[in-house]
Design brief:
Layout (H helix, E strand, L loop, with lengths): L13 H7 L4 H15 L2 H18 L13 E8 L7 H9 L5 E5 L5 H9 L5 E5 L2 E5 L3 E6 L14 E8 L2 E9 L4 E3 L2 E3 L1 H15 L6 E6 L10 H4 L23 E6 L1 E8 L10 E7 L1
Parallel strand pairs: 1-2, 7-10
Antiparallel strand pairs: 1-13, 2-4, 3-4, 5-6, 6-7, 8-9, 10-11, 12-13
Helix pairs in contact: 2-3, 4-5
């Protein structure tokens, strides 16, 4: 069991709060190592050996270079474009620079939705939108439908889940686009109950899929280390390479914009140039088969 699992989640979701910023603990270890070297303390250096090994085990592989692109790779982009984005056309240009096969967007609201649809149409002729989430594709889409991931405690209109089949040159895959509820850090801890409930509903939908290969793209308002996303991370692969901290855009501290896959491999994930959103877009390379 990873050391961070020893922190309980029963009071204030403290375990999830720690896991949201887990990679940054490496900086604490580096600082302590410098202090130990300055003091020439062999005891302190030995004591730091365990956290160094633990951090390297958890995150060291993310620093390695990714493999070369293969013939069965898809490139995808995931971006919460923000419902306050004042430059949707510029946002599209930033996303299209990565030349992805699929573009997943969240916080789509009128009238900017029309701008996204019109600007993306020439290169992405297939698209599906349900509620405030959408998927644009170079490949045909069929069977698009709403996925109900709305927690019981939310009473207002709320549609943030989409499922569709993508007909790629390498076979048919199911793609989900989702925007889970936001979390809040309060004096009492991390308020994530709605997010966790929504993740559970999404996990159940993915578990019921008949098609073998499933992709999930979305603003999940949690990192892949956060146990609140366990209904998803226990069923799907996450990125093998890259940290890609995506939020907040001004000073990214965590990657809450995720690309996951079942029966496929997320080779590498990275951020793209800033847009008019408070999130950075991320792009990932996925190997099918």
């Amino acid at each position: 069991m990873a050391f961070h699992r020893a922190v309980p989640n029963s009071v204030g979701h403290l375990g999830s709060l720690l896991e949201a910023f887990l990679p940054w603990l490496g900086l604490v270890v580096v600082l302590l190592l410098v202090l130990a070297l300055l003091r020439r303390s062999a005891t302190a250096l030995m004591a730091l050996l365990l956290p160094v090994v633990a951090w390297t085990h958890l995150f060291g592989r993310l620093l390695l270079p990714g493999p070369e692109p293969g013939p069965h790779d898809l490139v995808v982009v995931q971006h919460n474009v923000s419902d306050e984005n004042t430059d949707p056309a510029g946002t599209v240009r930033a996303l299209a620079d990565a030349d992805p096969d699929l573009i997943a967007l969240e916080e789509l609201v009128p009238p900017t939705l029309t701008v996204y649809a019109q600007t993306l149409a020439p290169n992405y002729p297939y698209h599906a939108v349900r509620g405030t989430v959408g998927l644009w594709s170079k490949h045909p889409l069929t069977g698009a439908r709403l996925v109900d991931i709305k927690p019981q405690g939310i009473t207002e209109t709320w549609s943030r889940g989409l499922r569709t089949v993508v007909h790629t040159p390498h076979g048919n895959i199911v793609a989900y686009v989702a925007h889970l509820p936001s979390v809040r850090v309060r004096a009492s801890g991390l308020a994530s109950s709605h997010r966790d409930e929504s993740a559970g509903l999404l996990g159940e939908a993915i578990a019921a899929e008949k098609l073998k290969t499933v992709l999930l793209l979305g603003d999940l308002n949690g990192t892949v280390d956060d146990r609140g996303l366990a209904p998803l991370t226990s069923r799907m692969n996450t990125a093998e390479r890259g940290f890609a901290f995506s939020f907040p855009a001004g000073f990214p501290m965590a990657r809450i914009d995720q690309v996951m896959a079942h029966s496929a491999t997320v080779r590498q994930i990275r951020t793209l140039s800033p847009t008019g959103s408070d999130h950075l877009p991320v792009t990932a390379r996925i190997t099918l088969g």
